[in-house]
Amino acid sequence: MMTEQTAEQVREKVDAVYRSESRRILATLIRLLGDFDLAEDALHDAFRAALEQWPKEGLPANPRAWLISAGRFKAIDAKRRLARFDTSQPDLAEQVEVHAKDVAPPLGDEDIEDDRLRLIFTCCHPALAPEARVALTLREVCGLTTEEIGRAFLTIPSTLAQRIVRAKAKIRDARIPYQVPSPAELPDRLEAVLQVIYLVFNEGYSASSGDSLTRSDLSDEAIRLGRLLAELLPESEVKGLLALMLLQESRRIARTSPTGDLILLEDQDRSLWNRDLIAEGKALAVRALRGRRFGAYTLQAAIASVHAEAPDVAAIDWRRIIGFYDALMRVEPSPVVELNRAVAVAMRDGPEAGLALIDEIIARGDLADYHLAHAARADLCRRLGRTEESRASYETALVLVRQEPERRFLKRRLAELG
Asked: How far apart are CA 71 and CA 45, in angstroms?
């Protein structure tokens, strides 16, 4: 019989196992049971059983294996009971049991990690809507609640819950396989996964709307996902994405003032940048560039590395940055990349050269509704002394901006024009 103190220690151990292992256990239960909802119920049933049995019987030698086994058997028992009371589904339990027997239940570390990889690729399957991929990944892979995801993306929790339910139904009804893609499918499928992770990071690093410039909880989750994916699937572009996120995250503290106002890269106090994240990000970027199949994330990480290694703005090697942007335009051309390259050209060759490129982009109709294009144009006009043009572009940017710190920054710039 355990003492009360020992029982409390066991409860603390159960909590610790839940925090560290629940996502791994869930990933394996989904494979064994073939159903997201059934696996989630089994996960919670297994931890309830642990709270009841471990204080009496002691900790098992392998808590993770115990919980997976308990969850699997409890799911089958639950379906057996349901089949007895629901005559419309007489073979329900049998189907679950057959599936569980057909799917071998190895529980070694390598198999568990394979299950986590399967879960990531399933949640990010291209058959699902982009917003559903993000919600499902944060819920199932990261373990965030719908309330936490809703707060992060300014979405009503009930709306997110419906989105997740529809995504699970799509996986079930379309029979989306719970597996890692074949080598032939991997490049396209991996791109969808990286897009989800970077979207989550960007929403945390530079929120698309609202009162706060950043939401560190989201960018932290994205980096955690990036580390997990780099560990499970060390492809060049996975390393490149992780490098990019770490290098950008290194500047978080310096990006805002104590009052929450935006501080531009050129005005940031570089002594506040996190040198450990910079060192790790730069090392990953170098390894990714040495790979044969690096892409846009790696090139963006290379650009961030050039910024990070410069002791001050005057020392930035804009020639190298423009070279990386030229490569990025070949790999993944877009008006936003073109805009960023134009800003770099302005820093190397002067504001008039950059302004000509930005005017060309806006004249084509590209980025007409993108506030940063008009803000960049306004800044270059300001540097050239073209005050009225600068004021007009700042006012256009103000109409389009959705984030309060950026709105305050643009208003300050307008006020400075007089």
From this structure: 6
What pLDDT is recorded for position 148? 83
Run of H or E residues at 360 = helix 351-363
Query: Average of pLDDT values for 57-66?
Result: 91
State the DSSP string of 138-193.
IIIIS---HHHHHHHHT--HHHHHHHHHHHHHHHHHTT---SPPPTTTHHHHHHHH
Phi, psi of 209 (to 5 degrees): -160, 170
- Identify any residues that bridge with 210 across adjacent strands, giving them in sequence order: 403
Cβ burial of 273 (10 Å; 0-12, 13-18, 19+) is middle
For residues 112 and 24, the answer to whether their CB atoms sit within 8 Å is yes
Q: How far is CA 39 from CA 86, 113, 294, 362, in A?
A: 20, 17, 36, 51
Residue 389 and residue 358 in contact, taking contact as beta carbons nearer than 8 Å: no
- For residues 7 and 55, the answer to whether their CB atoms sit within 8 Å is yes
Contact 54, 15 (CB under 8 A): no
Strands (E), 215-300: none
The more confidently predicted of residues 19 and 110 is 19
- pLDDT (0 to 100) of residue 2: 54
pLDDT (tens digit, 9 = 90+) per residue, 141-173? Answer: 988 888 888 877 778 999 999 999 999 999 999
Mean pLDDT taken over the chain: 88
Percent of the chain beyond pLDDT 90?
A: 67
What is the band of 83 on the pLDDT scale with cuts at 50, 70, 90? low
**Burial (CB count within 10 angstroms: exposed 0-12, middle 13-18, buried 19+), residue 397:** buried
Q: Radius of gyration (Cα) for the chain, nearest Å?
A: 25
Query: Which residue from 100, 12, 114, 103 is spatially nearest to 63, judged by alpha carbons?
Result: 12
Beta bridge partners of 262: 256
